[in-house]
Amino acid sequence: MNEMPLGITRAREGMEGISWNILGQTYVPKQLSESSFSWHATLPPGTFVPPHIHPTQDEFLYILEGRFDFLLDGKEDYAEPGDLVHMPRGIPHGIFNKGDSTIKTLFWVSPSQRLYDLFWAIHNMGPEPDPAKLVAISAEHEIDFLPPEEE
Description:
By secondary structure, the chain is mainly beta. The chain has helices at 115-122, 131-140; strands spanning 20-22, 25-32, 37-43, 48-53, 58-65, 68-72, 75-79, 84-87, 93-96, 103-110, 144-145. The protein is 12% helix and 40% strand.
């Protein structure tokens, strides 16, 4: 992985024109270096990222539009435009759009680890991928999904 290049990634552009479909959400990578990886995300109503852990990365979200609901280390919370959400490595968290409008946010992780490669691996897996396959691929890329809570 190269050092971070000097320059500007424009508002409606991503790196090398990349745009991923990640389980119905749109992720556009903005910057990648060994020390950090950032992407713009658009989450339609009803979409979410199930509770998971980044064992070797800190993760951040800067909320641009809409209201996110979170499960942060077992506690429910929310974030709105202008809020910065920080999720330290090793702490379980889930991200949800429970509202009726689209959410836009800037994500980033530090260090990058294998997350960029994970997004390529799960790009276009479809609206209803095999959960076991998704969990296995994620684990290979240092993201550990938690089992669903029992009712």
